[in-house]
């Protein structure tokens, strides 16, 4: 069995989760069995499963297993319940106890406490869960409890974990989450008594747990979804990205390391010479087989731009807004920009739209689960990211025949966009936002002056390598080799 290892999923996700969804699609095409494996407690897992099309028997959540029992590992949730939440609020209007009744059949009791913020200097007290109990709604039995602890350095972790009525009626105790996750993987290996392949997409904890278990029947693949370095250009480094540091200092403990682009593979081989067979390139996203692109389409009036991402600081969507405003105001281009996504930077982006007096032609569209249906409505795709391990939205936009305007960033942009052929790459400076905005504006000017029909035609050639059946075969070869 193949397991995709991640913390959890939500109604809105990052590129990591969408890469998992795409991998599930092509593994299905390749006839390879797999499960989504989540190790964090999610009080509303069924809703995002439904939103993103994950079948009930494709998902295993660690806490649902501990509460629902052994059959759950093979068959998923069998009985569904109405979702409900009840709160106990004290005389100071502070939440003290929260009872969550999940669709999956877990009764989760959160005991809340007020506490100081250990990570910021503030007089404001925070309210959070301190002690959590989990009950099986069908039997009424208490199946687990644990404590949250806000560590000065590691932030919130779990400790003092009790599991009740486990296999054989055992009462088990784990002092920390690492021990618990390792036990969970041991139970999986017993249930799926075959060669199991764990593909770790997110989390140092599962790396620590699984690297110890690496064997002839337990294979470990680590998937790198971003630049493995903080900055290759900085002469004081290379310094490993914090999220990849444990992997990159324990390369002997994994069978394969997957990167999304050949450029990143070659870059990794600079630091890991001789690991040619271990580091493998498989794109984390692709396009449907034999895509149809209307080569006769020309830009509309107004020309319609689109961007889609988490509205996070590293995506620099406000830079896109400012560059588009310059194109509109200084060059007189009749245009629109639609921004798909949600996140913590939404306020900053709204302010950039207001400052540019652009509310009549730049629109925040919110999240969409059907971007592949949206892209054909537009004329070009814009990105402001300084770093993309691959760029799932890039390949989706190219699949619709859209030229891309983005920064000349490692690795996805450089791999997927050939400057002047199927898009335009802008220079950037991490320390000078105005410079980056101006470079993006100049790239937009180049797009407006280009042969649009030729740009669209060139996208057809590029996406052939990224068709679903090609990537499905990449995964099949990798799994067969293990």
UniProtKB/TrEMBL annotation:
One Pfam assignment: Glycos_transf_1
The Glycosyl transferase family domain, residue ranges: 297-435
Sorted UniProt keywords: Glycosyltransferase, Transferase
Coiled-coil intervals: none
Enzyme class per UniProt: transferase
Superkingdom of the source species: Bacteria
Single GO term (MF): poly(glycerol-phosphate) alpha-glucosyltransferase activity
Enzyme Commission number: 2.4.1.52
This protein's name: Poly(Glycerol-phosphate) alpha-glucosyltransferase
Lineage start: Bacteria, Bacillati, Bacillota, Bacilli, Lactobacillales
């Amino acid at each position: 069995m193949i397991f995709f290892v991640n913390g959890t999923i939500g109604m809105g996700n990052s590129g990591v989760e969408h890469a998992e969804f795409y991998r599930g699609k092509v593994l299905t095409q390749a006839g390879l069995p797999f499960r989504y494996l989540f190790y964090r407690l999610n009080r509303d897992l069924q809703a995002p499963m439904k939103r993103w099309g994950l079948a009930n028997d494709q998902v295993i959540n660690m806490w649902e297993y501990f509460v629902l029992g052994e059959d759950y590992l093979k068959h998923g949730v069998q009985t569904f319940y109405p979702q409900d939440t009840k709160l106990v609020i004290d005389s100071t209007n502070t939440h003290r106890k929260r009872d969550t009744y999940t669709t999956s059949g877990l009764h989760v009791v959160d005991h809340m406490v007020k506490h100081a913020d250990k990570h910021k200097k503030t007089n404001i007290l925070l309210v959070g869960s301190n002690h959590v109990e989990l009950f099986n709604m069908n039997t009424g039995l208490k199946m687990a409890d644990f404590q949250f602890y806000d560590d000065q350095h590691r932030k919130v972790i779990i400790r003092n974990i009790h599991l009740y009525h486990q296999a054989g009626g055992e009462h088990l105790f784990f002092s920390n989450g690492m021990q618990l996750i390792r036990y969970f993987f041991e139970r999986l290996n017993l249930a799926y008594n075959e060669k199991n392949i764990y593909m770790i997409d997110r989390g140092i904890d599962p790396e620590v747990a699984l690297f110890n278990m690496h064997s002839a029947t337990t294979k470990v693949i680590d998937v790198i979804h971003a630049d493995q370095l903080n900055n290759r250009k900085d002469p004081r480094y290379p310094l490993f990205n914090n999220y990849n540091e444990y992997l990159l200092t324990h390369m002997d403990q994994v069978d394969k390391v997957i990167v999304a682009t050949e450029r990143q593979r070659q870059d990794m081989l600079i630091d890991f010479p001789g690991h040619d067979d271990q580091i493998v390139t498989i794109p984390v996203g692709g396009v449907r087989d034999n895509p149809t692109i209307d080569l006769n389409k020309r830009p509309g009036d107004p020309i319609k731009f689109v961007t889609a991402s988490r509205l996070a600081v590293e995506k620099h969507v406000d830079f896109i807004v400012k560059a588009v405003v310059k194109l509109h105001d200084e060059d007189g281009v009749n245009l629109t920009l639609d921004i798909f996504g949600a996140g913590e930077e939404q306020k900053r982006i709204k302010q950039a739209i207001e400052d540019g007096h652009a509310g009549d032609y730049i629109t925040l569209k919110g999240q969409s689960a059907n971007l592949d249906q949206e892209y054909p409505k537009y004329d070009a795709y814009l990105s402001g990211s300084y770093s993309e391990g691959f760029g799932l939205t890039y390949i989706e936009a190219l699949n619709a025949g859209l030229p891309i305007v983005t920064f000349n960033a490692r690795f996805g942009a450089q791999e997927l966009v050939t400057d002047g052929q199927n898009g335009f790459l802008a220079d950037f400076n991490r320390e000078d936002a105005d410079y980056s905005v101006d470079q993006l504006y100049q790239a937009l000017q180049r797009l407006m002056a280009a042969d649009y029909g030729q740009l669209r035609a060139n996208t057809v050639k590029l996406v052939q390598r990224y068709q679903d059946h090609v990537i499905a075969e990449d995964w099949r070869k990798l799994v067969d080799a293990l």
